[in-house]
């Protein structure tokens, strides 16, 4: 509570926009608002990566006051609520702490409020997520899951187009721009809530992408991860009387964009310095007498440059993480913290996310490891070897134990926060009947004229092969809670001959979650090829960006010329 805050009744203003009657109990909560023009109150209830929102607010020149009690909400001059995770879990925390009633009262007073992602959904009557679960009841409507039964990829992940339907200060200049979404549930427009809607977005039909009524604003997308457009939107809320940040003119966005992702393989070199490297079929050492680890630059510097160059996401892969205790890898955590202060697009980190015991015998769950990555600035975590073992166990028993890292993390943070990285190697066979795994008829025959191949999965950075195919693994991890698949190919890695189209098509056709094509990009044409011939949602590259052989902008320009929707 602010020093000297007085308790008193606050009547509704006569000119305030009409709102729904609030639930009982909220009217008794009342304190005076604070008046620090440079301070924003942030409601962080402890789930997911709120560091990104903090960094964006500070980047725009504002200080942050954290909510510690319901009174802190009512004392706020401006309140930002970046909801992350599951609807029911969030409401449990808000109800048990008394903050739900404080939020209702704050909104009833028409105080400046910005909800982000789940912070928008919680304003509605209820959600079907693990429910029905009652929400704050401010806006009429039910939050429902996207319907994947007709082939729609769920979660809705990526940069989609805003269609502004109401003139508001918040969205000034944002109409027709791509902003970043990552969610499986959405609120639908209706006659009962149409006066609230300020923009819509299309994904398998129209859904509410933002609301506005008086001083109450909320967005389904993540402005803190939406580049210059998102920062401009945040600036419009934080400084409503300013002109906001300049958003460059561009082609008008029309639909969900294909993503171009820059990947940074990070490891310690022989001197102990953390560097970005790149393998040749997963071998990161130079083909010289020194056999040193290839050093292609410093992680934070490269990530920052890729953000400026137009990368839609940046992915850090700690490629020796499977060997060591990741929470002891303080330099990697510091890389995340520093990168998240400069990079305002999504950050993914992978490597070594599994259960551990440290040198003192202290046990750390994979959930604790992932939580530290999230707190350090990651938006998504990528699981590799541990997901393979979990999938093998699931396929053998048909039982979801809830104990695997994949299941634990997706339950707490949502499946949209969990990527599974698949590292397969092509195995040629003469007939599909030769193996019990899904095969494809390959575009190029094998060394002995074989017309078919299956893709054998590996663990430990490609060192150990496992008795499971990429197709089977992808289907299993989707069932276990993965929200996205990063599909590598050891055969194509570092070759510059293009993505393995046969592999990407097989997996992207088999699952209803987004697939990121990886390994093999060597020219701009390889990106258009994978988007035109497969259902991949994104394409990732590393070496061609690090060595400046192909600029990210050149990829985007080529995709535009090829008729592929991208964010520019």
UniProtKB/TrEMBL annotation:
Which positions bind substrate?
Answer: 352, 488
| Binding residue positions for L-glutamine | 117
Reactions that this protein is recorded to catalyse: L-glutamine + H2O = L-glutamate + NH4(+); 5-[(5-phospho-1-deoxy-D-ribulos-1-ylimino)methylamino]-1-(5-phospho-beta-D-ribosyl)imidazole-4-carboxamide + L-glutamine = D-erythro-1-(imidazol-4-yl)glycerol 3-phosphate + 5-amino-1-(5-phospho-beta-D-ribosyl)imidazole-4-carboxamide + L-glutamate + H(+)
Q: Keyword Acetylation on this protein?
A: no
Supply the alphabetized keyword list. Amino-acid biosynthesis, Glutamine amidotransferase, Histidine biosynthesis, Hydrolase, Lyase, Multifunctional enzyme
Q: In which pathway does it act?
A: Amino-acid biosynthesis; L-histidine biosynthesis; L-histidine from 5-phospho-alpha-D-ribose 1-diphosphate: step 5/9
Give the Gene Ontology MF terms in alphabetical order: glutaminase activity; imidazoleglycerol-phosphate synthase activity; lyase activity
Active-site residues (renumbered)? 117, 222, 224, 265, 423
Region feature PRFAR binding, mapped onto this chain: 384-385, 421-423, 493-494, 519-520, 542-543
User: Locate the Glutamine amidotransferase domain: which residues?
Assistant: 42-238
Biological process per Gene Ontology, one example term: L-histidine biosynthetic process
Q: Which family does it belong to?
A: Belongs to the HisA/HisF family.
Its biological purpose is as follows: IGPS catalyzes the conversion of PRFAR and glutamine to IGP, AICAR and glutamate. The glutaminase domain produces the ammonia necessary for the cyclase domain to produce IGP and AICAR from PRFAR. The ammonia is channeled to the active site of the cyclase domain.
Extract the HAMAP family matched here. Answer: HisH
Q: What is this protein called?
A: Glutamine amidotransferase domain-containing protein
The species this protein belongs to is Eragrostis curvula (weeping love grass)
């Amino acid at each position: 509570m602010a020093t000297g805050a007085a308790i008193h009744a606050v009547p509704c203003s006569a000119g305030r926009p009409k709102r729904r009657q609030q639930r009982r109990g909220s009217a008794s909560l009342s304190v005076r608002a604070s008046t620090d023009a440079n301070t924003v109150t942030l409601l962080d209830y402890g789930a997911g990566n709120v560091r990104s929102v903090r960094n964006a607010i500070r980047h725009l020149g504002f200080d942050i006051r954290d909510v510690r009690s319901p009174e802190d909400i009512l004392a706020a001059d401006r309140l930002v609520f970046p909801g992350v995770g599951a609807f029911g879990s969030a409401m449990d925390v808000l109800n048990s702490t008394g903050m739900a009633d404080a939020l209702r009262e704050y909104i009833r007073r028409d105080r400046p409020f910005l909800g982000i992602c789940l912070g928008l959904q919680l304003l509605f009557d209820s959600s079907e997520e693990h429910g029905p679960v009652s929400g704050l009841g401010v806006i009429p409507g039910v939050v429902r899951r996207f319907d994947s039964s007709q082939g729609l990829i769920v979660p809705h992940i990526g940069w989609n187009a805003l269609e502004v339907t109401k003139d508001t200060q918040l969205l000034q200049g944002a109409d027709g721009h791509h902003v970043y979404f990552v969610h499986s549930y959405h609120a639908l427009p209706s006659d009962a809530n149409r006066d609230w809607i300020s923009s819509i977005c299309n994904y398998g039909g129209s859904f509410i992408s933002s609301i506005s009524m008086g001083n109450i604003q909320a967005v389904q997308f993540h402005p803190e991860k939406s580049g210059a457009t998102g920062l401009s939107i945040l600036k419009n809320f934080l400084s409503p009387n300013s002109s906001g940040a300049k958003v460059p003119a561009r082609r008008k966005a029309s639909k969900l964009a294909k993503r171009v992702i820059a990947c940074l393989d990070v490891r310690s070199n022989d001197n102990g310095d953390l560097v970005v490297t790149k393998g040749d079929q997963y071998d990161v050492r130079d083909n010289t007498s020194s056999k040193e680890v290839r050093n292609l630059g410093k992680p934070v510097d490269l990530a920052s440059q890729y953000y400026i160059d137009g990368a839609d996401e940046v992915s850090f892969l700690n490629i020796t993480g499977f060997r060591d205790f990741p929470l002891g890898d303080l330099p990697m955590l510091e890389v995340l913290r520093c990168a998240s202060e400069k990079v305002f697009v999504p950050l993914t980190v992978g490597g070594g996310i599994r259960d551990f015991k440290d040198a003192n015998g202290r046990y750390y769950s994979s959930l604790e490891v992932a939580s530290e990555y999230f707190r350090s600035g990651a938006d998504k975590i990528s699981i590799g070897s541990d997901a393979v073992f979990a999938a093998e166990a699931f396929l053998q028993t048909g039982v979801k134990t809830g104990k695997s890292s994949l299941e634990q993390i997706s339950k707490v943070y949502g499946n949209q926060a969990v990527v599974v990285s698949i590292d397969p190697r092509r195995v040629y066979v003469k007939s599909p009947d030769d193996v019990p795994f899904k095969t494809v008829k390959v575009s190029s025959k094998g060394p002995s004229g074989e017309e078919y191949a299956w893709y054998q999965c590996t663990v430990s950075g490609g060192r150990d092969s496992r008795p499971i195919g990429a197709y089977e693994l992808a289907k299993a991890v989707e069932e276990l809670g993965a929200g996205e698949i990063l599909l590598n190919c050891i055969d194509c890695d570092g070759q510059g001959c293009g993505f393995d189209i046969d592999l990407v098509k097989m997996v992207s056709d088999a699952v209803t979650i987004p697939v990121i094509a990886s390994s093999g990009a060597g020219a701009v044409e390889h990106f258009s090829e994978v988007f035109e011939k497969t259902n991949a949602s994104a394409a990732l590259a590393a070496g061609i960006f690090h060595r400046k052989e192909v600029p990210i902008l050149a990829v985007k320009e080529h995709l535009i010329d090829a008729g592929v929707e991208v964010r520019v």
